[in-house]
Amino acid sequence: MREIAPGAVHVPGWLTLGEQQDLVRACRAWATGPVPIRHTVLPRGGVMSVRTVCVGWHWQPYRYTREAHDVNGRRVAEFPAWLGDLGRRALADAYGHPDDGYDPDTALVNFYDGQAKMGMHQDKDERSDAPVVSLSIGDTCLFRFGNTETRGKPYTDVELASGDLFVFGGASRFAYHGVPKVYPGTGDPATGLAAGRLNITMRMTGLR
Ligand SMILES: O=C(O)CCC(=O)C(=O)O
Ligand SMILES: [Fe+2]
């Protein structure tokens, strides 16, 4: 466990192998539908290198809706109760105190192949300042965690490996962060993911 910045905590190896296998299975099912996983298209036409499927609420830059209007118009899969339980347990373990009613209602499931990256950004489309809970499975990545003012320095580079938990809330909730690099071939195929990196972020949208 390491505090990267106030409210930002990295917990290496938080998920068991069995939990990682269960999450890989769940993400595989979500990736097929009702809204299939896809490369998100940005408003100015750019295409994200990461592939994303959403649960609970659909994120499309830069808002949440129930239906995936930029994919097939269908309503995304329900956010399952077990995932909320996992999110509360994650938060309690990362912060070392009970979760004060953390109730995530959306998860963004990102799949990175060996070339995929994510630029520095803030998670700020939620109407809530509740923490973001991030779980990583598969290949290790370089995760850059910065500050709330600018995309640039100061930032801290952290390696997120399979099973790692990262929580950012409080003073770090709106910090810029990104994934400059994935290290292909570093994951354990026993998770069920033969290649690439899976990242699941749970959030509270504040919507209803
Ligand atoms: O892949 C990660 O570790 C971060 C993903 C992320 O920042 C996001 O989905 O907003
Ligand atoms: Fe993010």
Automatic annotation (TrEMBL):
The UniProt record lists the keyword Metal-binding: yes
Residues passing through the membrane, by range: none
Keywords for this protein: Dioxygenase, Iron, Metal-binding, Oxidoreductase
Fe2OG dioxygenase domain location: 103-206
Entry annotated with the keyword Oxidoreductase: yes
Example of a GO MF term: dioxygenase activity
SUPFAM superfamilies assigned: Clavaminate synthase-like (SSF51197)
Source organism superkingdom: Bacteria
Names of required cofactors: Fe(2+)
InterPro entries, sorted: Alkb, AlkB-like, AlkB-like_sf, Oxoglu/Fe-dep_dioxygenase_dom
PANTHER family associated with the record: ALKYLATED DNA REPAIR PROTEIN ALKB-RELATED, NUCLEIC ACID DIOXYGENASE ALKBH1
Protein name: Alpha-ketoglutarate-dependent dioxygenase AlkB
Species of provenance: Nonomuraea spiralis
